Amino acid sequence: MYIIVGGGGDVGYYLARTLLKRGHEVLLLEKTSARVQILAEELGQSVIKGDACEARTMQEAGAQRADVVIAVTGEDDDNLVICQMAKKRFNVARTIARLNDPKHEELFQKLGIDVTVSPTKAILSLIESELPGPHFIPLMTLKKAGIEIVAMNIPPMSQVAGKKLSEIHLPRKSTLALIMRGTEPIFPNADTVLLENDEVYALLNSEGEEELSKIFGTA
């Protein structure tokens, strides 16, 4: 099966690596040169520099013969463009899009995207009531991917309180998916400022758990 993955962040990297190990033909598209260089050290010719939102790039990637196109960039607009172009211009049979904001799910479905995956929605579905107890709570382990979903309360006087996410050096193998500020859900981006008592939900592997706990002051 030939699979094109748009977006070379951590999600795209782990997805491409896993699919390659399972014997699929995979091409990972990433538009940032520095990131392509890092990815190529492990994935080799299975990663190329290019913007998956551009028709020319997709044509050069052989989208017309792709069985599946998966869009996992950090921007929902880009993921929608990638999947729509794959369906309408290159007649790709199956498209899968990462949703960073769950409120876009209905729009994606109406526009013909076959499958949407929302890490935020998956975490929200686990939150049925306020989580008491310690600052650092493992919620669920995705054993096949080696990933945990954890909840952290930002304690008073934490070094990250008052800082933007772009100013915090998070472990490479971690993603902040959701912040609960009281009863308000916040879908974080680089400009989001963390506050004391924020409840943060993150995806990470076992290697990043201890490091993330130290950074947030929850150890």
Average residue pLDDT? 83
Trace the largest sheet across and list its strands: 3-2-1-4-5-6
The CATH class of the largest domain is identified as: Alpha Beta
The helix content, as a percent range, equals: 25-40%
Number of domains: 2
What spatial form do the alpha-carbon principal axes imply?
globular
| Beta-strand fraction estimate | 25-35%
Assigned CATH superfamily of the largest domain:
NAD(P)-binding Rossmann-like Domain
The CATH topology of the largest domain is given as Rossmann fold
Largest sheet: 6 strands, parallel
Rg measurement, Å: 18 Å
Proper CATH architecture of the largest domain: 3-Layer(aba) Sandwich
SS field, number of helical segments: 7
Organism: Ktedonospora formicarum
GO molecular function: potassium ion transmembrane transporter activity
Keywords: Ion transport, NAD, Potassium, Potassium transport, Transport
Domain RCK C-terminal: 137-218
Please explain how this structure is put together.
This is Trk system potassium uptake protein TrkA. Keywords: Ion transport, NAD, Potassium, Potassium transport, Transport. Residues 1-119 form the RCK N-terminal domain. Residues 137-218 form the RCK C-terminal domain. It comes from Ktedonospora formicarum. This protein has 219 residues and is α/β, with parallel strands linked by helices. It folds into two domains: 2-117, NAD(P)-binding Rossmann-like Domain (Rossmann fold, 3-Layer(aba) Sandwich); 124-216, 2-Layer Sandwich (Alpha-Beta Plaits). It is 30% helix and 26% strand. It contains seven helices and eleven strands. It has helices spanning 10-21, 33-43, 55-60, 76-88, 105-110, 119-124, 206-216; strands at residues 2-6, 25-30, 47-49, 68-71, 94-98, 115-117, 136-142, 147-153, 174-181, 184-186, 199-205. Strands 3-2-1-4-5-6 form a six-stranded parallel beta sheet, with helices on both faces. The longest helix has 13 residues, at 76-88. The N and C termini lie far apart (44 Å). The model is unreliable at 128-141 (pLDDT under 50).
